[in-house]
From TrEMBL:
Protein name as annotated: Nitroreductase domain-containing protein
Taxonomic superkingdom: Bacteria
Organism for this UniProt entry: Saccharopolyspora elongata
Cited Gene3D superfamilies: NADH Oxidase
GO molecular function terms noted in the UniProt entry: oxidoreductase activity
Domain (Nitroreductase) ranges: 126-307
InterPro entries listed in its UniProt record: Nitroreductase, Nitroreductase-like
Residues spanning the signal sequence: none
């Protein structure tokens, strides 16, 4: 975790985050999910303000437009706002762009109490994780789907549960297509190997799901792709959500990431597990094809799956 404290105010004044408060903010941001666990942001605190800046990185083969770092940034921003609320401040957020990179200035404007939902989600920050394995076969508890949709709803962002065999098949077709494209792309495979190097800081080598939707999240050249109808069956057995935005600007990617994190934390607070998948949707033909098949007018940005975690085997997490 790295938090820079700007020197201008020395950090000691009454109108500043204390060192302990800055550490809380840094820890919250550090817990956010990010593409290949890269944490593509920098946090600086000064006065009652926290500045989050996207860190420049090399364009990834699977994501030439840099969508994933911005979605990750949105998740970190959501965590930062929750943490500021937890310190007893109302947070005002101003997002912007510095060249191609997204930025956010979050200011604690006045003392304020967090809502119950904010408290619940903030307490779940450190417990959230990516569950890429099978779920328990039981259905989500009644009402959970609506709660998760509410958690992610934000201006310009909506969620839609995949429902019924036709929609499941539509998702399966899109994922199967994308997985074949990535599996045949040697440069993508090289990057994935780097990110899963046990000595590196990327995803854990056990991050590859074995069955169903999880199995097509990160596709290596060895991944056995399930056949479309089998994949569609598995999708129907899981609670799969597509998160969409009304437009497709960098700010929309940030919004999608913040919304994703709210839903993920809400699920975590209810002892549910989740994982996210964006890479198939980096292919424009997959975004438009999926939108068409599902009759969406908005842009699909990411897929999430939720479920009751099956007992993890020793060492699995
Ligand atoms: C924008 C974004 C894209 C991601 N894409 C994938 C993906 O396609 N497949 C996958 O298995 N995990 C994906 N992840 C999950 C990250 O790998 C994971 O959050 C990170 O390794 C940290 O692990 P944790 O979530 O268990 O804390 C993505 C996360 C983010 C924020």
């Amino acid at each position: 975790m790295s938090v820079t404290r700007a020197l201008a105010d020395g950090g000691h004044g009454q109108d500043s985050w204390s060192a302990a408060e800055s550490a809380v903010l840094g820890e919250a941001v550090h817990c956010a999910p990010s593409v290949h666990n890269t944490r593509p942001w920098e946090l600086t605190v000064h006065g009652r303000t926290a500045e989050l800046r996207e860190r420049p990185g090399l364009p990834a083969q699977h994501d030439p437009e840099g969508r994933d770092p911005r979605i990750s940034f949105g998740a970190a921003l959501a965590n930062l706002v929750l943490a500021i609320g937890g310190l007893g401040w109302a947070a005002e957020v101003a997002t912007g762009l510095a060249g191609d990179l997204v930025t956010a200035t979050v200011t604690g404007t006045h003392r304020s109490r967090p809502t119950d939902a904010e408290n619940r989600r903030r307490r779940a920050l450190a417990d959230r994780w990516s569950h890429r394995h099978a779920f328990d076969r039981r259905e989500l508890p009644e009402g959970t789907r609506d709660v998760l949709l509410d958690a992610l709803a934000a201006p310009g962002v909506t969620g839609r549960w995949i429902s019924g065999p036709d929609e499941a098949l539509a998702v399966a077709r899109s994922l199967d297509y994308a997985a074949r494209v990535f599996r045949g792309n040697t440069e993508y495979q090289r990057e994935l190997t780097l990110w899963t190097n046990p000595r590196g800081h990327g995803v854990r080598p056990d991050a590859f799901g074995a069955v169903g939707l999880a199995a097509v999240g990160l596709t290596t050249s060895r991944t056995r792709l399930p056949d479309e109808s089998l994949l569609a069956d598995r999708i129907q057995q899981e609670a799969v959500l597509v998160v969409t935005t009304s437009a497709d600007t960098p700010q929309d990617h940030v919004r999608a990431g913040a919304a994703m994190e709210q839903a993920w934390l809400e699920a975590t607070s209810r002892d549910l597990a989740a994982s996210v998948m964006t890479q198939p949707l980096h292919l424009e033909e997959v975004r438009t094809g999926l939108a068409q098949r599902l009759g969406l007018t908005a842009v699909p940005q990411l897929l999430m799956r939720f479920g009751l975690p099956a007992e993890p085997e020793v060492g699995e997490r």
